[in-house]
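Deviation from plan, reported transparently: LLP complex.
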Amino acid sequence: MHGFAYQNGSLHCEGIDLQSLAEEHGTPLYVYSAGTIRDHFTRLDQAMTGVDHEVAYAVKANSNLSVLRLLAGLDAGFDIVSGGELFRVIEAGGNPAKCTFAGVGKTRDEIEYALKQGIYSFNVESEEELRYLNTVAAELDLVAPAAVRVNPNVDAKTHKYISTGKSENKFGVDFEAIEDLYARAAAELPHVKLRGLQMHIGSQLTSIQPFVEAVEKVTPLVLTLKAKHGIEFWSIGGGIGIVYHDSLAAGSIDWWDAKSEQDRPLTLTQYGATLVPRLKDLGLKILLEPGRAIVGNAGVLLTRCLYEKQGTAKTFKIVDAGMNDLIRPALYEGHHEIVPLKEPAGERKLVDVVGPICESGDFFCQNRELPDFQPGDTIALMSSGAYGFVMASNYNTRPLPAEILVDGTTAQVVRKRQTLEDIIAAER
Ligand code: LLP
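Because the crystal trials were delayed, the predicted structure below was used instead.
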């Protein structure tokens, strides 16, 4: 389920008319549905019933303080990848003791900060990092809780830029090298306490099969580590894919519970039902690190059509959002459904929807048949709640868009639109 649907001919987010938000706050504008975020978090949590588990939301997907505060209120854990994300979680009232810290390149400052805040685990990506963690912890006279990320060499069958679990990726330590590494760490690194094992094979997985393959491959290893080193948790990572094609329609058919594979390739229910039986008797706490599955379909980017340009070969609809606001189409060939805020009736047209930036990659769709919206009309780029605003930049000296969080019939500005003065404030 998600909170976006036409009501009386105009697109709403829960009880709020998106056209009125666009008029009041301007465009480009990110709008998130609090109800959807709550729903997705709770569904995943419930789907894992039967296993001792924790849902650690991957902050990188959407790190707005109000989104984090909402999730902290649901007792979420948090998967962070920088000192900055830890700072945000703490500012939002999240508990550092429920934070895991991932990433291949943690700096000294970040390690110190996270150690002092008492995070749950450093998810370490190399032996070099583990040794450095031991050194920093020793200097502070602390013991660093840690897990090593295993690279299970499983094909996630997703876009190559968001596939992470193959041996040619930079992430994690080879499956075959893990046991020896834990033994060396136990013998040589007294300021590290290995309390778990972590894995993450990729993002936007739309089939359960690679998850099953990875879990089955790594299970004997975690059991060995538990027996030999007393590890207490296994993080199976994030990566659950969402609906991008026809995502508006998907909101009205309760697609998370859709029984047919055609309706939805991977539901949260299916994820839980398939993995719980494989995980429940391991005697380990299971951590999940979903980002996109929680917030992806909970957000849209609103943008206004400025011009329609008739080229010799194509029709271009030029809008006021650019690749600096939402980079997924340019970077991953990401598909975002495009719908006008006014419920369309009648004519459709084959168009490219493009932004104002001076790059050919600045498009939201190419050769797509869309309802024939006009200059002045506002459209929504669906499924933009994850890896949307967080990847936005000031390229072309364009201010970052505002963000709105809708909850029922209230809409709150959770980030003000940047001003030009904000952009240059730190420059000399
Ligand atoms: N855990 C780790 C260690 C990760 O690297 C990631 C995502 C996650 C969890 C959360 O994955 P999710 O559940 O959101 O799939 N910007 C790209 C996605 C990059 C994902 C990076 N890692 C996109 O827009 O598709």
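The longest strand covers residues 299-310. We consider this an acceptable substitute for the interim report.
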